[in-house]
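Assess the record.
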Amino acid sequence: MSDVPSEVLSAHAEAELVVSASDVAHAIDQTSVSITQALKHLNPLVLCVMHGGLPYCGRLIGRLHFPLQLGYVHVVRYRDSTRGGELEWLAKPRQAVTGRHVLIVDDVLDEGHTLQALLDWASKGAERVWSTVLVRKDVDANKTLDVDFVALECPDRYLYGCGMDYHGYWRNLPAIYALPSGLKDPT
């Protein structure tokens, strides 16, 4: 692990477990039931928001036992930083959203800038746009954004794991962790 920045390793060593892997799995199970009830007869186009939404989307679609199409959008705001910046589109889906029921799948709803931009974009042609996030943080800024399917509610802390990252690392963890509150951001 000599190439891994020391602050990435030390932050994880001091991190707090917020949601266990089994609780994450249970939340995804419950969310998949709600999504199935709503979308099973609508031939949805499921759009994964890269990169953060990939672990959640992969686990979620394996629990959706009805016909769907899968695509992705790639937008970035954080660029491996702990602070968001301007939204940048890297890729739009290959499939057209026109006339479709579209489900946008993302990892976390923080301030809501990314999800709102995606909802605005897709709603210009879709029959209906649905959204799901693995985590909705307890942030005043996102209270007005209506998300159809929220798997977990978490405190307003810097979270990582299950698609969320810390400087580009730890997206692969099956549980959700919070950085220590006193950690200074090295960026």
Observations:
- The chain is about 25% helix and 30% strand.
- The mean pLDDT is 91.
- Strands lie at 16-19, 45-50, 69-76, 88-91, 101-109, 128-137, 149-154, 159-160, 176-178.
